[in-house]
Each structure stands twice: as C-alpha cells, then as structure tokens.
Design a protein that fits this description.
The mean pLDDT is about 90. Helix 3 (about 65-75) packs parallel to helix 4 (about 105-125) and helix 7 packs across helix 8. The chain has helices spanning about 15-25, 40-45, 65-75, 105-125, 150-170, 185-190, 210-215, 225-230, and strands at about 5-10, 30-35, 55, 80-85, 130-140, 175-180, 220-225. By secondary structure, it is an alpha/beta fold. Helix content is about 40%, strand content about 15%. Strands 3-2-1-4-5-6-7 form a 7-stranded parallel beta sheet, sandwiched between helices.
C-alpha cells in the first residue's frame, strides 16, 4: 500500500478547520490519514468529499497512546508522511471561568489534549516523517494575548507555541510551524461565546490559503498568522 504521492496526517478532521483542510488536501491529490474523536461525525464529514478513497479515517482520541500508535502504523503503510497537521484541541469548560475559579481537573484535560497529546502524536509518527516534512501545530491568538476568561485555553496554546518553537530549533531538517488561523465561525468558537451571535466570524475556509502557502513555500520555521500569509500572496 506504499504511496509515492504527498501524504499527510490531519487530526480533528470531522469539522471546522480540520475538515476544511482535509477537503483542500484531497482536492490537491494528497493521500490522507484523518482522525477525530466522534466516529460518526468523521464518517459523515468524509462522505461529503470527492475522491475520499484517498482518505484513511481512523476515529479515536489523540490523548490515547494506543490510538496514536495506530496512526503511526497507518503512516507506515502510506510510505511515510510529508505533513502532519495537529489541529485537534478542546476549549475546556463553557462558559469559560476566571482562572481563580477554573476547575483543575478540567484544566488538566485541556493541557492533556492541547499540549501533551500534540507532542505525543509527533513522537508516535516521528520515524514516518519524510525528509523535509512539514509539521503544523494549530494555535490561537489567545496564546499570546491575555484575554479575560481565556486563561485555561490560552495558556495551553502558549505552551504549545513554546513546545513548537523548541521542536523547530532542535529539528532544522523539518519545517515546523505554529499556525494561528484567526477567529472562525466554528462549533468551538460558538462554545466559547454561548448564546452569542458569531455570524460575523469568517468560515474556516478563509484561513486555508495561508496555511497552504506555508506548506508550498517552505517558509522558515516559526509562528505565523494564516490570514496574513494569504494577504501577502
């Protein structure tokens, strides 16, 4: 089943930015491994795609080491990976509380998914990365701006940014990015603002051109805002 075409792993692929990326990669002829926690939602999303025979769907939780190993085995069957998009993440409690009131068991879960599992994915598939491969960890402006009530999610993304930056300096043979897609009209964003109208936020598709430009132009490793990249084209 070895495949010489471009191949990628995308996590959190059942909706939002993850599904938009999956669609864009499939349209460009990539072979994909995709994952999400909700098996039904993942398969429903993929049914909307043309050429979905190029997509291997493996539902599961990225925090589960056994699931991560299963993803690595699939990557080996594909002949390795040209790209890994660590998009899966969780908001935490909604509505989001002040940090002094943040339930520590929930905060631990947020860090487990948004930071530790991201590194766990990379550790699992590291040997399957092709020369010059691209790694993208999806971050947020909440990781750099001290927004009130965003302390749990925001600090987890700040940790992910620093983790990504260190990975980049330790591994100059790869292109390693933190990518901020900007505010988007997604289920997670709605959960962050329960009961509010978020229809003014753009759809995830607006962030795709900038992300693809990173992948295609092989810019230096670092932190980028996807929509600014799109404006530079």
């Amino acid at each position: 089943m070895a495949n010489q075409s471009n191949s990628a792993l995308i996590t959190g692929a059942s909706r939002g930015l993850g599904f938009a990326l999956t669609k864009a990669f499939v349209e460009r002829g990539w072979s994909l491994i995709v994952t999400a926690r909700d098996a039904g939602a993942l398969h429903t999303a993929l049914a909307k795609l043309d050429n979905r025979e190029r997509v291997i769907a493996i539902p599961g939780d990225v925090a589960d080491p056994i699931h991560r190993q299963t993803l690595a085995e699939a990557a080996q069957l594909l002949g390795g990976l040209n790209a890994v998009i660590n998009n899966a993440g969780i908001l935490g409690i909604s509505p989001q509380p002040l940090l002094v009131n943040y339930p520590l068991d929930v905060l631990e879960q947020v860090y487990q998914i948004n930071v530790i599992a991201q590194l766990g994915i990379l550790q699992a598939i590291w040997k399957e990365l092709k020369p010059g491969a691209t790694i993208m960890n999806i971050t947020s402006d909440a990781g750099v701006e001290p927004y009130p009530n965003w302390g749990g999610y925001g600090s987890s993304k700040a940790a992910l940014d620093q983790l990504t930056a260190i990975l980049a300096v330790e591994n100059p043979q790869f292109h390693i990015y933190s990518v901020d897609p900007g505010d988007m009209r997604t289920q997670m964003h709605q959960e962050a603002f329960p009961g509010e109208d978020i229809s003014d936020r753009p759809l995830p598709e607006v962030s795709i051109p900038g992300i693809l430009s990173l992948l295609e132009e092989k810019l230096p490793s670092g932190r980028y805002r996807a929509r600014e990249l799109a404006l530079e084209e």
